[in-house]
Specification:
By secondary structure, the chain is an alpha+beta fold. Helix content is 49%, strand content 15%. Strand 4 (140-148) and strand 5 (157-165) form a beta hairpin. Helix 3 runs antiparallel to helix 4 (69-85). The radius of gyration is 22 Å and the shape is globular. Residues 228-353 form the Acyl-CoA dehydrogenase C-terminal domain.
């Protein structure tokens, strides 16, 4: 279970500027988020993991995101990648979690950027993958590659995900981004590295459910994929709102009157706070669907729609706050501007693309309407 996150939140707040400057989390932050329970949150219970809920993950990730979006991003992904690794065969799961469930796992799985060639007993993998968030402090890395059939055979091309010890991966210091600067989402390289056959599974395996699996391991990947990216955004938006409100409360206009008395300022506060509140409701409801609802195609599409909409609401709200902050609010060290960069970067993730989410929802919605007409 996720523990009291207050020590992590306090450390993340103190470290936010440092992690942005060095483009990665500090070792202390990585240790703290592991101690808080993120790495083990979705690890199966038989390995000592929590097999936890999506609601708890979304809530605690947003709390951390108010202090530092980069820390929250890595925390959520370490949790999500533990869930992903649970699709590995039993032998590989033992290698990951036999000693402890507190294993940090980074990943670069979409798109499948590498090539895996069959070899006796497994695969030889080579390639370069980008955006492996948190890889500097990871113990293992999940990487997707294109293959030709099963290990040791030739056959139909497929995409597989491979588990590789972090020590066997070369990490390139490539992460220089507008926002989420502290996530350390660097590129990684393998050059003919051997991976045993038991340390992989196919993308198609994500549609399978192990009998008796915990709820968190029995829902479709598409139902929850966007949650891990939207939750840090919500936290960053809440942090921006708090910082903007505190600064504006003591700000005065050029004529000496309090800025808080201006109608335009009140409209900005009202609209931005409503947008962020609405985003929180959408996120909470999406997590509850993931934890409780029957995962029909329509429910999956509704979650995709709602999480993408929540991301848009957060981005719109924080942009509104930055614009209302004037020149002072655009300074490099301004807390609202920093969170605007984080939210803007997160909003560009493909999992939060509203057009794609709307298309998926429309397909299911209109199919349902066709049934009504019939």
């Amino acid at each position: 279970m996720l523990t009291d996150t207050r020590p992590l939140v306090e450390l993340a707040a103190r470290s936010a500027e440092q992690v942005n400057r060095q483009h990665r989390l500090t070792p202390e932050l990585a240790t703290a988020l592991t101690a808080a329970g993120f790495a083990r949150h979705f690890v199966p219970a038989r390995w000592g993991g929590t097999a936890g809920t999506f609601g708890a993950l979304a809530e605690t990730t947003a709390e951390v995101g108010e202090a530092c979006a980069s820390t929250a991003w890595c925390a959520a992904l370490y949790a999500a990648h533990g869930r992903l690794a649970a699709y590995l065969p039993e032998q590989a799961q033992y290698e990951l979690w036999g000693a402890t469930p507190n294993v940090r796992i980074a990943a670069a799985v979409l798109p499948a950027a590498g090539q895996a060639d069959a070899a006796p007993g497994g695969w030889r993998i080579g390639g370069r993958w980008s955006c492996a968030s948190g890889v500097d402090h990871a113990d293992w890395v999940l990487l997707a590659a294109r293959t030709q059939g099963k290990a040791g055979t030739a056959g139909t091309a497929e995409q597989r995900i491979f588990a590789v010890p972090r020590a066997e991966v070369a990490v390139l210091d490539t992460w220089r981004n507008l926002g989420l600067q502290g996530t350390g989402s660097n590129s990684v390289v393998l050059d003919g590295t051997f991976v045993p056959a038991h340390r992989s599974f196919t993308l198609a395996d994500l549609a399978t459910v192990e009998p008796g699996a915990a709820r968190c391991h029995a829902v479709p990947y598409q139902l929850v994929a966007a949650l891990q990216f939207a939750a840090p955004m919500l936290g960053a938006a809440r942090g921006a709102l708090r910082a903007w409100t505190a600064a504006t409360a003591v700000k005065r206009r050029v004529d000496g009157r309090p800025a808080r008395e201006a109608g335009s300022v009140q409209v900005v506060l009202g609209r931005a706070s409503a947008e962020i509140h609405a985003a929180g409701l959408l996120l909470s409801h999406s997590a509850r669907r993931a934890d409780e609802a029957q995962a029909t195609p329509l429910v999956v599409a509704e979650n995709q729609r709602d999480l993408a909409a929540a991301a848009d609401l957060c981005a719109d709200a924080v942009t509104r706050l930055v614009r209302a902050g004037g020149a002072r609010g655009q300074g490099e060290q301004d807390p609202v501007q920093r969170r605007w960069r984080d939210v803007t970067a997160a909003a560009g993730h493909p999992a939060l693309d509203f057009e794609a989410a709307a298309a998926a929802h429309a397909r299911e919605g209109f199919a349902l309407a066709d049934g009504w007409a019939a």
